[in-house]
Amino acid sequence: MAEHNDSPHPTAIRTMFAGVARRYDLLNHLLSGGLDRRWRRRAADAVACSSRDRKVAGTYEGRCDACAPIEHPPPLPRRARTAPRLVIDVCTGTGDLAMTVLRQWPRCRVVACDFCRPMVARAREKVCRAGLGPRAAVVEADALALPLADAVADAACCAFGVRNLADEAAGLSEMVRVVRPGGRVVALEFHRPRGRGPLAALFGLYFRRILPRLGGWISGGRHGGYAYLVRSIEAFGPPERLARAMQQAGLRDVTVEPLPGGIASLYVGTRG
């Protein structure tokens, strides 16, 4: 298990996600305060590599967890980037990030992977209904052992899944392995609310006390499973910790972009 993560055995995680598969999209909207669609569009935009392979300002340089928030560079204009041809979406869940990538990059193909069969079935259904099936392969696969060759993709991405990995380092290493040199690894992940003051305190109350019960009610009484999702965010640590883990997995120029809402960040690294 990763040090930050007190998650149950992978079998229990798979069972928990299977139980909430039909309502997972609604639960994510609740968890993010309705901002998750906007966040995914930003993540999908980030899978494109710079056509000028250069070091950008604001990269993570091994700062300690107590340091000031990491600055991030503004997005490069599309003309300065190379559109991805193949993207691997790890821990795809019900496929929302995979579909966002497909819509944002019309010539791109996506392989979407998840180890929970009901989630895979739901993702396939959504991809086909959206007319994106010809450019997508949705497969049942473990993020710790992807059934893909080395350096096969232009980018690998993961939305809200890194914190649920039984072995975070192994999962990040797999994402790096399947990406070609110069390609990108993109992670979208929740973290505990940032900032202080009345608003942060109010959100903390909603996040810790109200949200698990509301999620349990919507998901058919599975309060324990959804409470785990909230606990996993609490235990995940600050954004700087995941940035450091991405560096240790072999990525360079790692950047962290705080996202609107103060409860999630976008992490981007380049394979050397």
Short description:
By secondary structure, the chain is of the alpha/beta class. The chain has helices spanning 10-20, 24-32, 36-46, 96-104, 117-129, 168-178, 198-218, 223-236, 239-248, and strands spanning 49-50, 81-82, 86-90, 109-114, 136-140, 153-159, 179-190, 251-258, 264-271. Helices cover 40% and strands 20% of the residues.
Describe the structure.
Helices cover 40% and strands 20% of the residues. Helix 2 (24-32) packs antiparallel against helix 7 (198-218), helix 3 packs across helix 4 (96-104) and helix 7 (198-218) packs antiparallel against helix 8. The protein is built from 9 helices and 9 strands. By secondary structure, it is α/β, with parallel strands linked by helices. Residues 1-7 and 52-73 have low confidence and may be disordered. The relative contact order is 0.19. The radius of gyration is 17 Å and the shape is globular. It has one domain (35-196, 238-271): 3-Layer(aba) Sandwich (Rossmann fold), CATH 3.40.50.
